[in-house]
Design brief:
heterotrimer, A mainly alpha, B alpha/beta, C mainly alpha, A: mainly alpha, two-stranded antiparallel sheet, 12 helices, about 0% strand, B: alpha/beta, Rossmann fold, 2 domains, eight-stranded mixed β-sheet, two-stranded parallel ribbon, 17 helices, 14 strands
């Protein structure tokens, strides 16, 4: 039982890491209907820029601010040069444009910096908490990672902040209007381009935070882009347009992945089913709710 | 406009100038199928950088037997099809390449039969298709250093040493955390028989590629409580394994890395979590070797060094590159002893690789004592080394410390598996094994 | 171009239903095929065959396969390489265990891949749009997993890479030692001719499918599946049909990739990155275009090679830093994709149509 709980808790905590990646996707999809394929590379670019600066003895805070500014500027440039000219194109064209953007950033990130592996330490402790030592009363021999808890707190704060932002600010309101209906939003005078620029900039910031946390966890190198693959089933389960969905989806995928790997893999005479199992979980959920748990149900008319 | 014309004109002049210099003296051409971008770049820049730095050192000293090496690079991005394309593009350049070393199991295995047809030695230092050790069946395939089975038997021997003798392995539990790929799987069966021989129990745990999330694998380890964990990792999987071990409270000093989990790029990203991590190596890290000092002085001093980041001099991948450079050029030198000090053909180079012997004296002459293991390749054994050391990472000093002497692999145990694999291959492909007698050895360079 | 469509009388149904109604088009196609079959076969070098022409055609077929699902039927798929993997392994096992002749093995490999495609296409009946990529990605990861976890599929080979043995290369007439096989499988010209012929057959089949009821149903479903349903098209059947045909093409492409191009079998060459690459080929070439599929494959595959060769040529062999070339090539490819989408969302295929239109009145454009 204790082992089951340990697996579950570990899974839920890694799920939060997946949610971090997923939120960026959701933001952009929500506001502009674009499935941003370049998310992983933006993550890499942010983390790589940050780590390259700290390695050159730039102060932590200054490096953070510079990277932050860079990501915001990048977001605005992307909106200006890629998204704006493509407004009103089909969703597939927009998706493909982000594929192009991905290629561009991949070359840029590795060209400007390098393709070596960098270590990144944010100073969050990596030591485990032995629950049996801390809380003997519970009687559970479980290990919980401090780092994962810290990451979960950061992710939680970020999501809370975003939710408040969308719920209670004017910009957030316009953004929700835009995501409901571009045309109607423009008709009532909401500046679509400005909203998009804001969204891309905010996504850049999310990429920076996710990139740093993931970078601490797995090192900063090209493989960081693979973090996206963990985020994909998460947003599909949660619904492409829902921020709370990204969190719930992350928890579901994280838990299901770990439980599947521990308990189900034996059925397949081996291990390593994590990858396709995560997608199969997502598939099962989608078969029940085709637009995800919190996704908007689309009404189609002929 | 004017400037553009100027640039083009000067490029043309430079091109003409270069080709005239090249044709002035005798040279041997080596294609360099490097990978400097993408997920595998850390290994590629280090390895090929080390090779080129060593070549430059030799060229500065007048080449091999008076023949200088020339080369051109081709980016493979570690992908098989691009590697094969590079091979086909480069093999006939500059009078023909002398050998091809892609540092990739996929590319080198894909080229085994092509290499046989083209009479081109395919080199895979410290890795490759293990059955390829049998030179009578794979005459153009060389993997100087150690093979997978050597590597794992050496690791088990080392653990035996830590426990105070092989007999103390009885009842010990060893888990192997392996990369979810054929590379990772290759060692499972061998580890089973190795543990059967020494009475330990063995559990193999797979980490799906790329391995950036290992929570469940380490939970399994925590549950089964092994005495040692062997890390048969690759790329980002290695630092994540160390960090997850730390998070799970598993002592990292009992985590033993294999040959592709032993580089600086594997431990530095893990930070403090890697402190005390041990790994096998055929070529210790560091710059305390004469040949490395010479490269720093003569090549980097002259501004011809290949590494942009000089702090990577003496790193594991770069030293592996230097070792590979030594192996390549010694094979060429030995072939020249047989065929004369001139530019060699690829089949003559093959003879050189097959008769490659690196004795302690020769390694001393090269200034590579301690860096390069003794090698003795022959027709039946295209690996020739079967030796490795162990090193331990000191995270505070950011350096590897050597913690063992050369340890030899269990060649007997591996030979039967290798034979079976090679003979099956020969049967499948209608290959008649060539005789490996001593007298035929001198003449069958042109197979 | 100095001929026009206008003013031509069609006198019979047979001539009205021709694939290429214009005589000039027919001549151009025939001339092109003659060039590919005769001139190229006679003159091209081994490098050109083995590293340029064969992979471009094979990838073109895979791109065409994806285009059937995505471009013609509107079902997004990111599992192309996974389906190719199923095809390649199916062909290998058919030859290994049933000793099937290679062309038949290619066909049945396609069928097996197609059946797998139907399984992973089933969710398409309920899930739409971007959500569908979850199913095809599951296919991709499942393929990578299954061929890794069960070495039986690779004849229990421990190194994970199998060099395809010569006795696998049998055509119709018995063993590999016959002169027929020696010519066709063991020379690059022969492999080129076989690849070219299979590609041609698949293109012909595709062309006929898309201009018949099958293809029109696909496009109706793509444009709006509810509307298609209303006018009496069975959406479920059409989607599954599209998935079957699409993955059939991918499967054949995978088998050809292993047997005609690389000569090795290894599941790792069919990784997710390749799925994306084939996606790029579809995008750059143009959705819903056969010609575009091949133009896309040629561009995406050929571009990095071209750029390195140009670098070599301008700066002298090997002096250019490969990382520099590679990164810049990526930047340029990315820029081209974006610019192409902004200027011409239809890809190269649309560009070609525009060019054709302009040429029609050239040089007396109004």
């Amino acid at each position: 039982m204790a082992f089951f709980l340990e697996v579950l808790v570990g899974g839920l905590l890694s799920g939060v890491m997946y949610s971090l990646v997923a939120i960026g996707f959701v933001l952009i999809y929500k506001s502009s209907g674009v499935f941003n394929f370049a998310q992983g590379t933006m993550l890499l670019l942010a983390a790589l820029t940050f780590v390259s600066m700290t390695e050159r003895q730039v102060d932590f805070k200054i490096a953070f601010i510079i990277t932050l500014v860079m990501m915001v500027v990048l977001g605005i440039i992307v909106e200006r040069t890629v998204m704006r000219p493509l407004a009103n194109q089909s969703l597939l064209s927009l998706f493909m444009a982000t594929v192009g953007l991905n290629y561009f950033l991949e070359g840029l990130a590795q060209g400007v910096w390098d393709s070596a592996v960098h270590g990144l330490e944010l100073g969050i402790s990596n030591d485990p908490i032995f629950l049996i030592d801390e809380f003997p009363a519970l009687g559970l021999d479980i290990i919980i990672s401090q780092f994962d808890i810290a990451a979960a707190v950061i992710a939680g704060t970020m999501i809370l902040g975003l939710t408040l932002f969308f719920q209670y600010t004017r910009t957030g309101l316009s953004l929700r209007a835009v995501s409901d209906d571009h045309m109607a939003a423009m008709a009532v005078g909401i500046p679509l381009n400005r909203i998009w620029a804001i969204v891309w900039a905010v996504t850049g910031v999310i990429c920076l935070i996710a990139g740093l946390l993931w970078g601490d966890r797995v090192s900063v190198s090209f493989t960081l882009t693979a973090a996206v693959l963990k985020g994909l089933p998460v947003i599909l389960i949660g619904g492409l347009t829902s921020i709370p969905g990204a969190i719930v989806g992350g928890l579901i995928i994280g838990a299901s992945e770990k439980l599947g790997e521990i308990y189900l893999a034996e059925l397949f005479g081996g291990q390593g089913i994590e990858h396709w199992w995560a997608y199969t979980t997502a598939l099962i959920f989608l078969m029940i709710r085709p637009t995800g748990i919190f996704g908007e149900k689309q009404i189609e008319r002929v | 406009m004017k400037t553009r014309v100027m640039v083009l004109a000067s490029a043309l002049v430079a091109m003409l100038g270069m080709s005239s210099i090249v044709s002035a003296e005798e040279t041997m051409y080596v294609p360099i199928p490097s990978y400097r971008v993408g997920p595998y770049a850390a290994g590629g820049t280090g390895y090929f950088g080390g090779i080129l730095d060593y070549y430059n050192l030799l060229n500065a000293r007048g080449g091999i037997g008076g023949v200088k090496l020339i080369w051109s690079e081709c980016e493979t991005e570690y992908s098989v099809e691009r590697g094969v394309e590079c091979y086909k593009r480069l093999k006939d350049r500059e009078g023909g390449a002398v050998f091809f070393d892609p540092l990739s199991v996929g590319i080198s295995t894909a080229l085994i039969e092509t290499g046989r047809a083209d009479k081109m030695p395919i080199i895979a230092v410290n890795h490759g298709k293990t059955a390829g050790q049998r030179g009578d069946i794979f005459p153009y395939y060389f993997m100087p250093g150690i093979n997978t089975y050597d590597e794992h038997s050496i690791m088990v021997h080392y653990i035996g040493g830590l426990e105070g003798g092989m007999e103390n392995l009885k009842g010990k539990k060893i888990a192997m955390l392996f990369h979810g790929s054929p590379y990772g799987r290759e060692a499972i069966a061998f580890m089973d028989s190795m543990c059967e021989k020494h009475g330990c129990s063995h559990e193999a745990i797979e980490v799906p590629h790329p391995g950036n999330e290992q929570q469940s694998q380490w939970l399994k380890i925590r549950k089964s409580k092994p005495d040692y964990v062997l890390l048969r990792g690759w790329g980002v999987m290695n630092p994540v394994a160390m960090q997850t071990a730390k998070r799970m409270g598993f002592p990292v000093s009992r985590l033993i890395g294999n040959i592709w989990s032993n580089s600086d790029e594997d431990v530095i990203p893990a930070g403090g979590a890697a402190n005390g991590y041990q790994a096998i190596t055929t070529h210790p890290a560091g710059t305390d070797f004469k040949v490395v000092q010479d490269i720093i002085a003569d090549v980097y001093g002259a501004g011809k060094g290949d590494l942009q980041d000089k702090s990577r001099l003496g790193s594991v991948y770069w030293n592996l590159g230097v070792l590979a450079g030594v192996v390549h050029t010694e094979a060429l030198r030995i072939a020249q002893e047989r065929f004369g000090n001139r530019a060699l053909s690829s089949s003559e180079t093959r003879w050189g690789f097959e008769n490659l012997v690196l004795t302690a004296e020769r390694i001393e002459e090269l200034g590579a004592t301690g860096l390069v293991p003794e090698l003795n390749l022959n027709c039946m054994d295209h690996v020739g080394g079967h030796l490795a050391k162990f090193q331990q990472w000191d995270a505070n000093a950011r350096q590897w410390n050597i913690v063992s002497d050369w340890i030899e692999g269990d060649v007997e145990l591996s030979q039967s598996i290798i034979d079976a694999g090679a003979e099956k291959y020969a049967a499948d492909n209608n290959i008649e094994p060539r005789p490996c007698s001593a007298d035929s050895n001198d003449d069958d360079f042109d197979l | 171009m100095y001929y026009r469509e206008a003013g031509r009388l069609v006198k019979s149904f047979a001539s009205d239903r021709r694939m290429l109604p214009l005589m000039e088009d027919r001549w151009i196609v025939i001339a092109f095929l003659a060039f590919m079959y005769i001139v190229v076969t006679a003159t091209a070098s081994d490098y050109l065959f083995s590293a340029i022409l064969i992979p471009m055609m094979v990838l073109g077929v895979a791109t065409l396969g994806l285009n059937i699902a995505t471009g013609y039927t509107g079902q997004l798929s990111l599992g192309t390489a996974g389906f190719m993997c199923f095809g390649a392994f199916a062909a290998f096992n058919l030859v290994l265990r049933l000793e099937m002749y290679l062309p038949f093995a290619f066909f049945f490999a396609g069928v097996i891949a197609g059946l797998v495609g139907i399984v992973f296409g089933l969710p398409a009946l309920r899930i739409k749009g971007f959500y569908l990529i979850v199913s095809t990605l599951a296919a991709q990861f499942f393929a990578e997993w299954v061929f890794n976890a069960y070495p039986w599929f690779l004849d229990n080979n421990s190194s994970g890479v199998v060099a395809l043995p010569p006795h696998h290369y049998k055509v119709f007439l018995g063993q590999e030692s016959t002169p027929f096989n020696a010519v066709f499988w063991h020379s690059y010209q022969g492999r080129y001719l076989i690849t070219l012929t299979i590609t041609l057959l698949l293109v012909l089949a595709c062309k006929n499918m898309v201009r018949s009821a099958t293809g029109r149903n696909w496009m109706a479903v793509r444009d709006m599946d509810i509307a298609a349903n209303v006018i009496g098209i069975s959406v479920a059947k059409t989607k599954l049909m599209a998935f079957f045909i699409s993955t059939f093409y991918c499967g054949v492409a995978g088998a050809m990739y292993a047997y005609c191009y690389i000569g090795n079998l290894d599941f790792m060459i069919f990784n997710l990155r390749r799925s994306f690459l084939i996606m790029f080929m579809v995008i750059v070439g143009g959705l819903g275009s056969i010609l575009g599929s091949f133009l896309g494959a040629i561009f995406v595959y050929g571009w990095p090679i071209l750029i390195t060769r140009m670098g070599d040529w301008i700066f002298g062999g090997g002096t250019l830093d490969t990382a520099f070339v590679e990164n810049n090539s990526k930047i340029v490819v990315g820029t081209i994709i974006i610019v192409l989408l902004i200027r011409e969302p239809g890809g190269f295929a649309a560009l070609w149509l525009t060019t054709k239109k302009k040429l029609r009145s050239w040089p007396f454009a109004n």
